[in-house]
Amino acid sequence: MEAVNILWLILLVVTVLVLPYLIYLLHKTWQASRSIERYFKEMKEAGIGIANNTEHVKALDDTIGVASGILGVAGSINEHSDTLKTTLAARAEQIN
């Protein structure tokens, strides 16, 4: 019976000493999980902002495509500018 009381006393002392440490560890784990949750929320907001700011890239690609066509037409006009100048000068002389 004395051995049982000694075992209970040892378990009681271990429990009293270990339980606060376990509670401390659980509290630190809970704090870390809250920080991770907050960081994920911030990352989600940043990701949404990046996605919203990069959806205009397609519009820029379309603009580049149109600009390439405009450059082709401008080059064609430049090639025929002498013909246009000669024709307009001849018509101006006919009017005067």
UniProtKB/TrEMBL annotation:
Q: Does the keyword Transmembrane helix apply?
A: yes
Keyword vocabulary terms for this entry: Membrane, Transmembrane, Transmembrane helix
Q: Which domain of life is it from?
A: Bacteria
Report the transmembrane regions from the record.
6-26
* Annotated protein name in UniProt: DUF948 domain-containing protein
Q: What is the lineage of its organism?
A: Bacteria, Pseudomonadati, Bacteroidota, Flavobacteriia, Flavobacteriales
